[in-house]
Write a structure and sequence with these properties.
The protein is an alpha+beta fold. It is globular, with a radius of gyration of 28 Å.
Length: 823
């Protein structure tokens, strides 16, 4: 999609759920640690979790005193914040988290708060020093942001936890709850600050200047006594006569805030504890991986339910939108847009604003907890198979197996029908890592049975990889149910990535599998094949992503960021053509994709899964013509940026029937495939949306309207039923119940993702963001959207229906719907 200047989100803030593979998976080798080293690793995890708790409690106590009016509004409770730039006022660890600004010490930090934080940091270092040698043993591996190949002292590790990882994570979570709204003890009645928060114990002339009559604990909203003090425990009709709607109780709002602060810390701590306990057992060889296991998942679900019940018991739907209280990032209010506008359900009146707030805060708490857990227990794979294993492009009798070695040396592959490898059905020896392909190994396994679970592993000398799993497709006559997950958009800047909370037959990794053009991850902008390899290694270093690749057969397609933003493959520039070839090669090097012997760069292909489903993976980049703003100057504004809404001249260029999105050969392949498919549901795996979104249309199907209409009309004219576009790219969750007109058959589009990239709301230009509150009116066929949340989608398909379940960073269900077949 078109990326634009946006709020740079912190990795720790938006880090996702690194949990939830709900199956008994085979064990994987992990680097061998001695008992002393294991003790050191776990001590770091425990000490870091306890420091998080101490910092959170210390800072929240300060924030509570500030909110109650005990402290002056100028008092600071957090050690550092961004000064200037996009993230002004937000907690930070370094200048890199403050684009266009700087990360600076809070000079007005409350002195007692500062002393307590210093004491907690000293205890953190002492705790680590009791069970870790100095320097830290090299076998003890830490994750972002503390991981490094250099030797670390105890002080280094403690300092990173306090200043960059858990400490800053606690501050960020508190920012979500408290923001910078200051006092919440009362509301001004009259004067310049009428209706704004105030301190009842303060100077009225200062708190409510120019005619303020009272700093009231509760005031009427609406009716003849609008704005006047009232008794929140009294009779509303008496206290606020006429059309009074509520006696605004600031004490109750403060209690809601305090409860959320308390419960967020409890939930985050429990989440870190659950993951630490699982990791500790895994590293000691006491359980099979990956983590969390099923028992841990059950506990995490209970923790989330307890968190939800506690918040909803004290926070009402009206309180969470009270103008006197703004929640912090990512639940903040921006102009007329609040967190409540970012989620919409046309048919579910039970999705009230208090639930929306809870979802937002819970996702922030889960992300912070998971990032902290990953810092202490990154759970690396053992060398030489450090980047794990994968399998994909599975048919009813074959699959592609993949791995990477840390160095040269012959590799052997074994495939079995059981995880103990007592029944080996295929062995391939003498597999040679391809040096040009960054020592990756890719081979096809054939002669298999349909709808069968297989286990595979690689060996190099005495070293054994983790065990992978893959299920072959059912044969074309099978009526078996098919379970699959689709999502996309994984930028290494946002690690750790989400891990699926379901056990699908296949995972569809739909585009932007890396962000080669985003330098925030630390490896710069990729141009050469080697550069792109580095981007994949950044992503594949994430344990969560390796777990998914190892345990679910993967069908992958690319979008633009495997090369560069919004690229069009017909660009004749020789430099670009070399870059696109390099990106294409690296994509095929790192993913288990079957090579096309006729055209190695061809990526579009299809897979049938019994009578229930057929998947069409398209290539929406390599064969397309330039976007209209490249060929028509009237599509650009005076700053050289694509216009939000095309002018008539620009619209004419967009509608030119000579422009192609898929290319003639691929377009005919897709038409023939849809027409001849014997599967009930035809899923077109899509990057940029085919739904018409009006604003900035150039890179989506909307930017190639003649071909968009041609595909839609072909499906309708030929009465090809049960066609569903499954899309990603836009970094949001969207359900469109009708693509094109209402003439049967009805085409639907379901959008999921991202698993690790700036959500679409954070990328919207101001000219579009202002329309967010009225988006439902613009798009009457869109029944649900969530445009500020990481997510994925699961679909369970039979020949008679498809059940769709979306989950977020906590593993909670966001939306579920069933799509019956069109007979």
């Amino acid at each position: 999609m078109e990326t634009r200047p946006s709020l740079a989100l912190s990795t720790a803030w938006w880090a996702l759920l690194a949990a939830a593979l709900s199956f008994a998976a085979p064990a994987r080798p992990a680097p061998a640690l001695s008992e002393t080293e294991l003790k050191c690793q776990d001590t770091i995890a425990l000490a870091a979790r306890n420091y998080f708790k101490a910092r959170y409690k210390t800072v929240s106590t300060c924030e509570e005193r500030k909110a109650s009016g005990d402290f002056a509004p100028t008092v600071e409770c957090r050690p550092k914040k961004c000064v200037g730039g996009d993230n002004a006022g937000l907690p930070c660890a370094n200048d890199g988290e403050c684009p266009e600004g700087s990360c600076e010490d809070n000079l007005n930090l409350d002195s007692k708060t500062g002393e307590k934080l210093q004491s907690a940091a000293e205890k953190l270092e002492q705790k680590i020093g009791t069970h870790c040698s100095d320097p830290i043993p090299s076998a003890v591996v830490l994750g972002l942001p503390c991981g490094t190949t250099a030797a670390l002292s105890v002080a280094d590790v403690a300092g990173c936890i306090a200043d960059q990882a858990h400490g800053v994570g606690a501050d960020r979570l508190l920012e979500t709850v408290y923001d910078m709204t200051g006092v919440l003890a009362g509301i001004c009645v009259g004067g310049d600050n009428d209706g704004l928060p105030c301190n009842p114990a303060g100077d009225l002339a200062v708190e409510c200047p120019n005619g303020g009559t009272e700093c009231a604990v509760a005031v009427c909203q609406g009716g003849t006594n609008d704005g006047l003090p009232c008794d929140p425990l009294g009779n509303l009709a008496t206290e606020c006569p006429g059309t009074g709607t509520v006696c605004r109780d600031m004490a109750a709002l403060r209690f809601c805030q305090t409860t959320i602060a308390k419960e967020s810390q409890k939930y985050a701590k429990k989440r870190q504890t659950r993951r630490r306990n699982c990791a500790k057992k895994l590293m000691a060889g006491k359980i099979d991986g990956p983590c969390p296991d099923q028992k841990t998942l059950a506990k995490l679900d209970k923790d989330l339910t307890a968190f939800r019940d506690a918040v909803l018991a004290v926070c009402s739907a009206s309180q969470v939108l009270d103008a006197a209280k703004d929640w912090g990032f990512p639940c903040e209010r921006s102009g007329s847009t609040t967190f409540a506008n970012l989620t919409f359900d046309r048919f579910d009146a039970t999705l009230t604003n208090d639930i929306k707030l809870f979802r937002c805060v819970a996702a922030a708490a889960a992300g912070d907890a998971d990032a902290g857990a990953e810092t202490a227990y990154p759970l690396p794979d053992a060398p030489p198979f450090s980047h794990g294993v994968a399998a994909g492009d599975q048919t009813d009798d074959a699959f592609i197996a993949w791995t990477r070695t840390d160095g040269p040396g012959s590799v052997t592959l074994e495939v079995a029908t059981d995880e103990d490898f007592t029944t080996i059905v295929n062995t391939q020896t003498g597999l040679t890592p391809d040096a040009a392909a960054d020592n990756t190994v890719k081979t096809e396994v054939t002669g298999l049975d349909p709808a069968t679970q297989y286990f595979y592993r690689f060996t190099q000398g005495s070293n054994v990889s983790r065990v992978g799993r893959v299920r072959t497709a059912p044969d074309a006559s099978s009526t078996d149910e098919v379970r699959f997950v689709w999502t996309g958009d994984s930028n290494a800047f946002f690690k750790p990535f989400t891990v699926l909370a379901d056990d699908p037959d296949v995972w569809l990794f739909i585009g932007d599998t890396i962000y080669g053009d985003d330098e925030r991850s630390g490896s710069g902008v990729a141009v050469t094949r080697s550069d792109y390899h580095n981007k994949y290694k950044e992503n594949w270093s994430d344990a969560s992503l390796r777990n998914v690749l190892a345990n679910f057969g993967t069908l992958a397609m690319w979008d633009d960021h495997e090369v560069t933003n919004d690229f069009y493959g017909t660009n004749p520039d020789p430099g670009f053509q070399a870059q696109m070839t390099a990106g294409n090669q690296a994509f095929r090097d790192y993913l288990p994709i079957r090579e096309d012997t006729g055209d190695p760069m061809r990526l579009y292909r299809n897979f049938q899964w019994g009578q229930a489903a057929e998947f069409f993976l398209i290539d929406d980049r390599q064969y397309r013509d330039p976007q209209a703003y490249v060929t028509e100057p009237d599509c650009l504004d005076t700053n050289g940026q694509p216009k939000t809404l095309p002018t008539p001249l620009c619209a004419a260029e967009i509608a030119d029937p000579g422009r192609t999105y898929l290319g003639a050969t691929q377009k005919q392949w897709l038409k023939n495939g849809l027409l001849n498919s014997t599967a009930k549901f035809k899923f077109i795996m899509n990057g940029p949306l085919i739904s018409s979104l009006l604003f900035v249309p150039y890179d989506r199907w909307d930017g190639y309207t003649a071909e968009r209409d041609e595909i839609i009309n072909y499906i309708k004219t030929n009465n090809i039923k049960n066609v569903i576009f499954l899309s990603t790219d836009i970094h949001g969750l969207i359900i469109n119940s009708q693509v094109g007109n209402a003439t049967p058959p009805i085409i639907k589009e379901l959008v999921s993702g991202a698993i690790g990239m700036d959500p679409i709301y954070r990328e919207l230009p101001a000219s579009v963001a202002s329309f967010v509150p009225v988006l439902p009116a613009f798009f009457p066929t869109v029944t649900y959207f969530d445009i500020d949340r990481f997510n994925y989608g699961l679909i369970e398909v039979t020949p008679t229906e498809a059940t769709v379940t979306y989950r977020d960073a906590t593993g909670a269900v966001l939306k579920q719907l069933t799509i019956p077949e069109e007979p």
